[in-house]
Each structure stands twice: as C-alpha cells, then as structure tokens.
Design goal:
Blueprint (H helix, E strand, L loop, with lengths): L1 H26 L1 H5 L5 E7 L16 E7 L17 E3 L14 E3 L17 E7 L14 E8 L8 E17 L23 E2 L7 E8 L1 H13 L1 E6 L20
Parallel strand pairs: 2-8
Antiparallel strand pairs: 1-2, 3-4, 5-9, 6-7, 6-10, 7-9
C-alpha cells in the first residue's frame, strides 16, 4: 500500500513539475521573440486627456512604456517637458502614444479645441470615419488632406473611386468609443492591451470611430456629405506641394491599367 502511495505521489510531483516547465516556457515565448527587435520607450496615454489640457497638467494621465520601434508613432514624445507651453488640440484616449502633432501653442488654442485658424468663408462639416480611413487614427487638427470618395454596388460592376478634393483643412478630431466592440458591423475593433513578461506592448490603434471636422466651401460640403451617406470616404495626408496630377475615376475596368 505504501509503495503504491509513494508511486502515486512521485507521479503527481513529476506531472506538476512538467506542467510548470511548460507554463514557464510559454510565458517567456513572447520575450524570446522580441529579443532581436529594438525596443524604445515612449509616453502612452493612460487616462482620457481633454482637449485644451496643458502639457504640464498631464501628470499620471501618461506613462512611459516600452514599445517595439517599428510601431512608434511619428513625433512620439518621451518626456512631457518636450511639450512645455503647449495644450492638447484634441481629446486623447487611453492606449495612444503621446505625439507632438496633437499639441498646439496655448496662445492660439480656441474654445473649439482645435487650435486652428478657420477661414470665415468656409463651412465646418463633421464626418465619422474608422481609423484606417483617417491616417490610422493619428490625424490631427491643422492637417491638410485629400478626400477620396468610393462607391460600390453588390455586383461591383459600377463600383468607382476618385479623389474629389485637395488641400482640405482638418479643424478638429474627436474619438467616439465603440458601443459594442465585438460588433461585426464596424471595421474597427479593440486592440489587445496585454503585454508580455518583459512589459513590451505593441502599438495600440484607436478602438472607435474618429469624428473629423473639415473646413469646406458649400459645394464641397455637399459632395462630402453625399459620399458619406451613399458610399465611403478616405482621407490622405496632403502636404503642401505634394503632386496630385494623374488622378481619375477608378473602376474595375481600369484599376489594373
């Protein structure tokens, strides 16, 4: 009886040791995979930051985190003092990297939260876009964009896309959180906020739609609204001097030509 008991106890001990070894191996797999990737530290938003918040008041709303260099956002900030004298030009949400482009001089910030001088002869029109349609969610007020409208039908016979506007001023950007992150009707989904044992996180993408406000003349506003209602819109960053010649209406007959 004692021999059987001892044998059973030894078997259980060996099984436990084996299980712990497997768990330890799996737990460290992510770290081993990242061993050859360069990791840098950037500030990441921890709590929602309202538009107009001075950089000096960010406090524990931001935290320094390790991020794989490949996914570091352009203009990412490593020290709050780099933003001295600036205020947030738009609402910042948890998970996004702190970037210089989302801050403006306090002296030019307006009550709208955009910090952008808006021509008095233009209308302001707001459209809802998934992050991938608005520069991955890093779109900031003051940016000039090109607007592409895309229409499709079930057969795709009459599907067409065309860049309809150029040098459109973005006056404000806000984040609208998803009511149901698991919904299949929204192409934007929550990204994982987990980290591996070394504390390294991938770059978090916005998990809701962006409300983007554009400064447009009346005819352009009509075109944008129609495209948003009947088709879809894409925004492209358009720096001053960027070549725009050669665009045309794209359909199935000429997309590969």
């Amino acid at each position: 009886m004692n021999r059987r008991f001892v044998g059973l106890a030894v078997a259980l001990l060996l099984a436990t040791i084996g299980t712990l070894a497997i768990v330890a191996y799996v737990h460290g797999a992510d770290s081993r995979a990242l061993d050859k990737q360069k990791v840098v530290s950037v500030l990441v938003v921890q709590k929602t930051v309202s538009a107009g918040t001075p950089a000096e008041q960010l406090g524990d709303r931001v935290k320094l985190e390790s991020v794989v260099q490949q996914v570091v956002a352009q203009g990412a900030v490593t020290k709050v003092k780099e933003l001295k004298g600036l205020v947030a030009s738009a609402t910042l949400v948890p998970g996004e990297q702190l970037v210089r482009g989302r801050f403006v001089n306090a002296s030019t910030y307006r009550a709208t939260g955009s910090g952008v001088d808006i021509p008095s002869d233009l209308l302001q029109t707001t459209i809802a876009l998934d992050p991938e349609r608005a520069l991955g969610g890093v779109l900031t007020p003051g940016t000039k964009v090109a607007v592409t409208a895309s229409f499709e039908d079930k057969s795709n016979v009459h599907a067409e896309s065309h860049m309809i506007l150029h040098q459109v001023l973005v006056t404000n950007v806000q984040m609208r959180a998803l009511n149901n992150p698991s919904s299949s009707n929204n192409s934007s989904s929550n990204t994982s906020n987990t980290s591996n044992s070394s504390g390294v996180k991938p770059g978090d993408a916005p998990s809701g739609q962006l409300l983007v406000t554009l400064a447009l003349d009346a005819p352009s506003s009509e075109r944008v609204i129609f495209a948003a209602e009947r088709g879809s819109l894409w925004l492209s960053n358009e720096p001053s001097g960027a070549p725009t010649a050669g665009t045309k209406v794209i359909d199935r007959d000429n997309v590969l030509r």
